[in-house]
Design goal:
This protein has 108 residues and is an all-alpha fold. It is built from 5 helices and no strands. The longest helix is centred in the N-terminal third of the chain and has 25 residues, at 3-27.
Length: 108
Amino acid sequence: MSTLGYFLTLTGCALATYLTRMPALALSGRFRLPVWLMRLMNYVGPAVLAALIAPSIFAPEGTLELNPLINYGLPAAAVTVVLSLVTKKSLLAILAGMATVFLFSLIM
């Protein structure tokens, strides 16, 4: 692709992003969202994060793999979730999950 092509693609993406977000930002101070909708908005972040992470844990090669001896992501995810819930320390939980994948890859 030429330099002009890259520039036009980047400009188009920027314009599309701006035009889809600007109306909501411009109108955000004029309307008050209902309480029930604000409560539901609290779940958007975790839902998006789960949607991004779940396929890489349960189907790392594109097909469902639930054998923890083959799919090291399963025990690592379990360790990460349990440690995160118990200690409430994200960095510790992430490092423990990484260590679990590393140890499984050495052992298996």
